[in-house]
C-alpha cells in the first residue's frame, strides 16, 4: 500500500507494534486467509496485520494476520469499493436518454 498522502499511520495507537506482534503470535505467524479453491487456510507466513472491518477499531478481535499477497488483495478490493461509493456520491444518477421529462 502506498502511504503517500494517507493519515492512516498517524491514526494507529501508540502501542501498535505491541498489538501487531500480539496478533501475529495469536495467529501463529501464519496467514489466516482461507483459500477459495480448497477451503484450506493459506500456508504463507503472515507479514501484515489487517483490520477485519476497516476503520479505527484496533481491538484484537478486529485484527488478523495476513500474508502480503492476501493483505494487498483485500486492501485493493476495499479501496475500489470506497472509490465507487465516492464517485456515486459525486455524480447524479444518469437518466436514460429516451426517458420523457
TrEMBL record:
It comes from the Bacteria. The keyword Nuclease applies. Keywords: Endonuclease, Hydrolase, Nuclease. Gene3D superfamilies: 1.10.30.50. One of its GO terms (molecular function) is endonuclease activity. Residues 18-72 form the HNH nuclease domain. This is HNH endonuclease.
Amino acid at each position: 500500500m502506498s502511504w503517500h498522502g494517507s493519515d492512516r499511520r498517524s491514526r494507529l495507537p501508540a502501542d501498535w507494534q505491541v498489538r501487531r506482534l500480539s496478533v501475529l503470535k495469536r495467529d501463529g505467524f501464519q496467514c489466516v486467509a482461507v483459500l477459495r479453491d480448497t477451503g484450506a487456510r493459506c500456508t504463507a507466513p503472515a507479514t501484515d496485520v489487517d483490520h477485519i472491518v476497516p476503520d479505527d477499531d484496533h481491538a484484537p478481535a478486529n485484527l488478523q494476520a495476513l500474508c502480503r499477497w492476501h493483505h494487498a488483495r483485500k486492501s485493493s478490493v476495499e479501496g475500489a469499493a470506497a472509490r465507487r461509493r465516492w464517485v456515486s456520491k459525486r455524480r447524479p444518477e444518469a437518466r436514460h436518454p429516451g426517458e420523457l421529462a
